[in-house]
Specification:
alpha/beta
Length: 288
Amino acid sequence: MKTIKIGNKELGGSNPCFIIAEIGINHNGDLNMAKKLIDIAAESGCNAVKFQKRTPDICVPEDQKTKMRETPWGYITYLQYKKKIEFEKKEYDIIDAYCKEKGIYWTASCWDIPSVEFINQYKPAFHKVPSAMLTDEKIILAYKKSGIPMILSTGMSSLEEIDSAAKMLSDDVPWMFLLCTSTYPAANNEINLKAMEVLRNRYNRPIGYSGHEIGLQISLAAAALGASVIERHITLDRATWGTDHSASLEPKGLKQLIRDIRVIEAALGDGNIKIYDSEIPIRAKLRG
């Protein structure tokens, strides 16, 4: 089984689960909110935070650009809204410096090639390819060209589409998949955690889980089933205005998730049957 190096972390095998806190667009265009979410992720023990990067003029479909929408900035077009929540170089320069100060990796899922090129200037420890882009050959090849390790989500994808992405990636750049269901929130009976083992065996490399469910149980089960990466959306308050907040973890839930993942990892052990030192006096007492 291959392993993957992300910064100074080895992913796969018996290595600890790599935890990604997906800030995404839950900062709502507010840099101070983004910094608070970075603080929470770092304090909770996450290994990385992830944002989303788009060029709205490219990514917003033409028939959606002039659609009107109620937002915290008033009744504006969908294109205006997408621009309001988009961070640019000024903000990402600050995010880059702030994450280095906090000792946490950061990256951003890119939805178009100019965004990939924009994020490349920060030399992130890894690229995170969103489920929506898994079948986009041009953007996959742009990611690959950067030479930066890639983590790809599989939401909305058939096994044939996942196979096609894997063939494009080859072994030129380290990569792995995250099992994902692209509904917000995802229904429990549409998660299919057993598919992680199918993907792990099919591609002979670590597999992770990107969760959009409500609660902690499924992500903890993914860790128990050997997920090498767990990614969850985070928010300051699930009631905040915005599309992703309701399927996100609040600070207390994030801390509990990471605490319990580390407990599970300790309990999984190495699989070798043994008598523990702590058992020896009990053995002597009960067996004579």
